[in-house]
Automatic annotation (TrEMBL):
Cellular component GO terms held in the UniProt record: plasma membrane
Keyword Repeat in annotation: no
Name by which UniProt lists this protein: Methyl-accepting chemotaxis protein
Transmembrane segments: 242-266
Length: 328
C-alpha cells in the first residue's frame, strides 16, 4: 500500500508537470512567432503595426502585457500605460536574461518597473533585418491558470503542491492568490535544493510531522514542480481504507459461499425432477402415483384416478391408508 501511494504521487507529479510544460511551450511559441513578425518592421514607419502585433500576442497568449525593447533604448508596450521617463529597456532584467540565453526562454522572477511585484516573462531576442539592431520581445506571464490548478490539486492532497525555480524561488504557492508567506514550503524547498540531482523520493520533518516529497524539473523553463504528502495522514487514511476493504471482502466471500451452496441445492432438485420426468416419458407404466417421504399422495395420473374414483377430499384418507400399508 505504501509503495502504491508513492507511485500514485509520482504519476500525479508527472501528469501536472506535463500540463505546465505544454502550457509554457505554447507561450514560448507565441513569443517566438511575434519576434519573427517584428524583424522586418521599421520602428518609425510601422509603429502602429508593431503595437498591433504586440497586442495580438497578448490576447492570444493571455499575457499580462507584451513589449519590445531595442538596443537604442526604444521601448514599445502593447498597452497605453505611461512609461517612466527613466525607464531603460536594455538595463532591465528581462532584456539581459534574453540576451544571455540567446533563445526564447522563461526568465527568473524579477522586480517589475510598472507594478510593485516580482514577475516572470517569456522573452525572445531578435536581430532587426534592416538596421541590424538587437531587440528583445518580452511577455509577462499570467500565472492565475497554474495557480488555480495548484489549488485544485491541493484540495485532494494530504499535503500540498507548488512551483519553484532552480534556485529555490517560489513561483506558485499552495497558499493561493494572496501574498501570505508559505512557511511550510521552506523545509520542502531546502530538501529539494540539497537533493536536486536525485530522482528518488525524499523525506523531511516539519513540526514533528514526516513528509514525503517528489519533484521534477520542467522541460520548457527553469522551474521545478514539487508535491509533498503528510506520511502520517496518508497511512492513517490507507489503514482505514484497508479495514473497510477487508470488511467488504469478508461480506462478499460469505455471500458467495451461500450462493454457491444454494445453487448446488437447486441444481440437485432440478436434476431429480428431470430424472423423474424422463422416467415418466420412457416408462411402460401407465398408472402413476407420486407420494412424499411421509407417503402422502401428491399426484395421481388419470389412470389411477379412473381405477380409484375418489373425490379430492378423500385423497387424504387414501394417503393415510397407503401410509399404513407401506409401513406394514
Amino acid at each position: 500500500m505504501e509503495r502504491l501511494t508513492q507511485i500514485n504521487q509520482i504519476n500525479m507529479v508527472k501528469f501536472f508537470k506535463q500540463r505546465v510544460d505544454e502550457w509554457l511551450l505554447f507561450k514560448k511559441k507565441i513569443v517566438s512567432s511575434t519576434a519573427v513578425s517584428l524583424e522586418d518592421l521599421d520602428t518609425a514607419m510601422d509603429y502602429k503595426e508593431i503595437k498591433k502585433i504586440l497586442d495580438n500576442a497578448s490576447s492570444i497568449g493571455n499575457f499580462d502585457s507584451v513589449s519590445i525593447g531595442y538596443d537604442n533604448n526604444l521601448f514599445i508596450l502593447n498597452t497605453d500605460e505611461e512609461i517612466p521617463k527613466d525607464y531603460v529597456a536594455t538595463k532591465r532584467d528581462w532584456y539581459t536574461m534574453a540576451l544571455q540565453a540567446g533563445e526564447t526562454t522563461v526568465t527568473l522572477p524579477y522586480q517589475d518597473a510598472f507594478v510593485d511585484k516580482k514577475v516572470l516573462s517569456v522573452v525572445a531576442p531578435l536581430k532587426h533585418k534592416k538596421t541590424d539592431m538587437t531587440a528583445v520581445v518580452s511577455a509577462d506571464l499570467n500565472l492565475n491558470t497554474i495557480q488555480q490548478e495548484i489549488l485544485n490539486i491541493n484540495e485532494r492532497l494530504q499535503g500540498f503542491a507548488f512551483l519553484i525555480t532552480q534556485d529555490g524561488s517560489l513561483i506558485v504557492s499552495p497558499k493561493g492568490f494572496d501574498a501570505a508567506p508559505c512557511e511550510e514550503c521552506q523545509p520542502a524547498i531546502e530538501t529539494i535544493m540539497k537533493n536536486k540531482d536525485k530522482i528518488e523520493l525524499q523525506t523531511y520533518i516539519y513540526k514533528d510531522q514526516k513528509y514525503i516529497i517528489f519533484y521534477e524539473p520542467l522541460k520548457n523553463s527553469d522551474w521545478i514542480f514539487a508535491m509533498t504528502l503528510n506520511e502520517n495522514q496518508i497511512f492513517a487514511e490507507l489503514n482505514q481504507s484497508f479495514f473497510h476493504n477487508m470488511i467488504l471482502t469478508i461480506v462478499f466471500t460469505v455471500f458467495g459461499i451461500i450462493s454457491f451452496y444454494f445453487f448446488i441445492f437447486l441444481t440437485k432438485k432440478t436434476t431429480s425432477y428431470k430424472r423423474l420426468l424422463d422416467w415418466f416419458a420412457h416408462s411402460p407404466t401407465q398408472a402413476v402415483a407420486i407420494v412424499d417421504v411421509h407417503y402422502r399422495i401428491l399426484f395421481l395420473n388419470y389412470l389411477f384416478q379412473d381405477l380409484i374414483p375418489l373425490t379430492r377430499g378423500k385423497i387424504f384418507d387414501v394417503s393415510f391408508d397407503f401410509n399404513q400399508k407401506a409401513q406394514d
